[in-house]
Specification:
By secondary structure, the chain is an alpha/beta fold. It has a single domain (3-121), classed as Response regulator (Rossmann fold), CATH 3.40.50. It is 45% helix and 19% strand. The protein has helices spanning 11-23, 35-44, 61-69, 88-97, 109-121, and strands at residues 3-7, 28-32, 49-52, 79-83, 101-104. Strands 2-1-3-4-5 form a five-stranded parallel beta sheet, with helices on both faces. Helix 1 (11-23) links the parallel strand 1 (3-7) and strand 2. Helix 2 runs parallel beside helix 3. The radius of gyration is 13 Å and the shape is globular.
Length: 122
């Protein structure tokens, strides 16, 4: 089973994500509270997929993606962005940082799971 890391500063959103992922059969989910925490956890454990917010304290999601892409383990692993940011400019910044996909909050669990299934099957 795939190992997933979700990075978001909102406890409620992490809980919602965890629930949706568990319902979709993804039960090996680790949580991180910001980019710094996420990067530490990603360095100590190899995840098959990372889902990150953009706007977080200490280290934002785009910086996190850039730092992850510098690591050989994560140079090509899927990283999904889950955020309230919906502008084309922000999406372009995410793509430039190395994001695999972009999902706008509030998310629909079925759409999230569809995206997770797609990127994990590549």
């Amino acid at each position: 089973m795939a190992k997933l890391l979700i990075v978001d500063d909102s406890t409620m959103l992490r809980d919602m994500l965890n629930y949706a992922l568990n319902e979709g059969g993804y039960t090996d989910v680790t949580e991180a509270v910001d980019g710094v925490d996420g990067l530490e956890k990603a360095k100590s454990t190899t995840f098959d997929l990372i889902i990150t917010d953009v706007n977080m304290p200490n280290m934002d999601g785009l910086t996190l993606i850039g730092e992850l892409r510098k690591l050989s383990t994560y140079s090509s692993r899927p990283i999904l962005v889950l955020t309230t940011e919906r502008s084309d400019e922000m999406k372009a910044k995410g793509k430039a940082a190395g994001a695999t996909g972009w999902i706008v909050k509030p998310f629909v669990p079925e759409q999230l799971l569809k995206a997770v299934n797609i990127v994990l099957s590549r």
